[in-house]
Amino acid sequence: MKRREFITLLGGAAAWPLAARAQQPATPVIGLLTPQSHESATPFLEAFRRGLAESGLVEGQNVVVEYRLSEGRFDRLAEMAADLARRQVNVIAVPGGSATAIAAKAATQTIPIVFGVAEDPVKLGLVASLARPGGNATGVNFFAAEVVAKRLSLLRELVPAAKSIAVLANPANAANTAALADMEPAARALGLQIKRYDAGTSRDIDAAFGALARERPDALFVAPDSFFFVRRVQLVHLATRHALPATYPIREFVDIGGLMSYGASVTDGYRQVGVYAGRIIKGAKPADLPVVQATKFDFVINLQTAKTLGHRNSADPARPRRRGHRMNKREFITLLGGAAAWPVVAQAQQSAIPVIGFLTRHQGEAHQRAT
Fold first, then answer.
1. N or C terminus: which one in the chain shows less Cβ crowding within 10 Å?
2. Which residue range(s) make up the domain with 100?
3. Three-state SS across the chain?
4. Is there a domain that residue 305 lies in?
5. What are phi and psi of 223, to 5 degrees?
6. Are residues 249 and 364 in the same domain?
7. 107 lies in the same domain as 155
8. How many domains would you assign to the chain?
9. Which of 277, 293, 309 is the last residue of a domain?
């Protein structure tokens, strides 16, 4: 070519990077909505990022995460979900329970949603079926509502003298109604009487424990609910204060002093939500991703709390001895000593119970034994 044509061509080449940059896709954005506080959510958000990494995404490099934490304000979830929808994020991740998932589903019918819920997502109206979700949502089912009978049985094993069980439930959580109904036949089979106490606010929780102090049931069953998870410090404190043996749906209650828990790993659920969010960013359709069902269940006992309850119950002369009275320290620790065999028995009855853990305040972490 001629010199003039060559110079013209070189001049046009300088514009290539600008044109190419204009054609490059923008960095994808994931909106994450949870009712937790920044402090309590830290380990779960780390698990979510691990899930993203499994799908080849690293926050700050090839994906942006917009966080919306309502700090326990459930009344703000709808507003926050609507804000993420207006921003047209690529995916909305709601691993924090049914309230966040329902808020996201109400905010958009087009933006992909990845949820983490304890209840049946079909009954919640989030998906058409577990195998073929359809629509714009898929995610993880923790099965917390489905194992209430098992939790009741384990509580009976731990407190064999118990006859009356208080059940704390959130009346706003309609999905728990059917699950708690399953407790009735299970309780009858175990020779237990159950009584429900409702609590949907922090004040309700205080009032419920006031009633428990007067009526003095033998043990407490805390129903699975995202509000109770946010208020777990209050619940564990009150149960300890009233020397009331309590079973909780997940181990995070036990980590801060609760007596016992049996349920799926919420941390692993957050990780799986991250995996699915990453896969959708990479091109997968939520309608084609089956709902993941939890396969890892933890049965955890806090030994320090067990010893404390044993001391208090044996050293309370004002408390009348009666049938159904909670066990003394020696009985309690003896039962804990035989607890190592429980997962073996339970495994024969149920397919996935891989871990039993004992948590002590001094050691800070649960000692776990895989089965």
1. N
2. 27-142+266-293
3. CCHHHHHHHHHHHCCHHHHHHHHCCCCCEEEEEECCCHHHHHHHHHHHHHHHHHCCCCECCCEEEEEEECCCCHHHHHHHHHHHHHCCCCEEEECCCHHHHHHHHHHCCCCCEEEEECCCCCCCCCCCCCCCCCCCEEEEECCCHHHHHHHHHHHHHHCCCCCEEEEEECCCCCCHHHHHHCHHHHHHHCCCEEEEEECCCHHHHHHHHHHHHHHCCCEEEECCCHHHHHCHHHHHHHHHHCCCCEEECCHHHHHCCCCEEEEECHHHHHHHHHHHHHHHHCCCCHHHCCCEECCCEEEEEEHHHHHHHHHHHHCCCCCCCCCCCCCCHHHHHHHHHCHHHHHHHHHHHCCCCCEEEEECCCCCCEEEEEC
4. yes
5. -70, 150
6. yes
7. no
8. 2
9. 293
> What does the pLDDT read at residue 119?
84
pLDDT tens digits for 207-246? 999 999 999 999 999 998 888 988 999 999 999 999 999 9
201 domain-assigned: yes
Whether the CB-CB separation of 250 and 266 falls below 8 Å is answered with: yes
In angstroms, the Cα distances linking 6 to 1, 13, 203, 354 are 6, 11, 80, 71
Find tokens 């065999």 and name the residue: 341
pLDDT of residue 352: 42
125 and 170 part of one domain: no
Two structure tokens written together for 149: 């009978």
User: Do 129 and 88 share a domain, yes or no?
Assistant: yes
Count H helices, E strands: the chain? 16, 14
Residues 128 and 85 in one domain: yes
Residue ranges of the chain with per-residue pLDDT less than 50 = 18-22, 314-354, 360-371
